[in-house]
Amino acid sequence: MRIPATGYIIFNTRESIIMPRATTGRVHRKKSKKILKDVKGYIGARSTLYRTAKDARRRALQNSFKDRRRKKRDFRVLWILRIAAASRLSGLSYSKFMAGLKASGIEINRKMLAELAARDMDTFKKIVEKVKEKAA
After folding, report:
1. What are the CB-based long-range contacts (under 8 Å, 24+) for 98-104?
2. What is the DSSP string of 13-77?
3. Which pLDDT score, from 0 to 100, does residue 13 have?
4. pLDDT at position 128, please?
C-alpha cells in the first residue's frame, strides 16, 4: 500500500494477500489442553469450555497473586489481636506493651509474641513483668 501525491490509496494486490489465521494447529491444541488441565475441578462451563476456562484461570491467577500479599496482612492483624488480648490480661494495653518492649531492648517479633501468648502464657507474663519494671 502506498499513498501517492494524488491522495488516493493504491493497493498492490500481491502485497495485500493475507493467509487466514490457523486456529487448529499443534501449538493451539497444546495451549488449550494446558489451560483446560489447569481448570480441572472448576464448576460447570469453567472447566470444559475453552473461552470461559481461560477467563476463570486468569481470574484465579490474579486472585492467588493478590491473596498471597493479603495473607501477610491478615496474619499480622491476627498476631496483633493475640498480643493485645494477652497483654490486657496482664494489665497493659497493646501500645504500652509494644512501647515498653522497645524501651527495654527486648527484640521479639510479633509472630513469636503471638505464639507465646497463645501457647505459653507463663513466659509471656514474664516478658510483661520485664516491660512493667522498665516502665516503672
Report:
1. 100/131, 100/132, 100/134, 100/135, 101/127, 101/131, 103/134, 103/135, 104/130, 104/131, 104/133, 104/134
2. TTTT--PPPP-SSHHHHHHHHHHHHHTTT-SGGGGT-HHHHHHHHHHHHHHHHHHHHHHHHHHHH
3. 57
4. 94
Distance CA 102, CA 95 (A): 11
End-to-end CA distance of the chain: 87
Of 71, 62, 117, 64, nearest to 90 (Cα)? 117
pLDDT at 22 over 90: no
Domain 38-135 class, CATH top level: mainly alpha
User: Would the pLDDT of 5 be above 80?
Assistant: no
Overall size of the chain counted in residues: 136
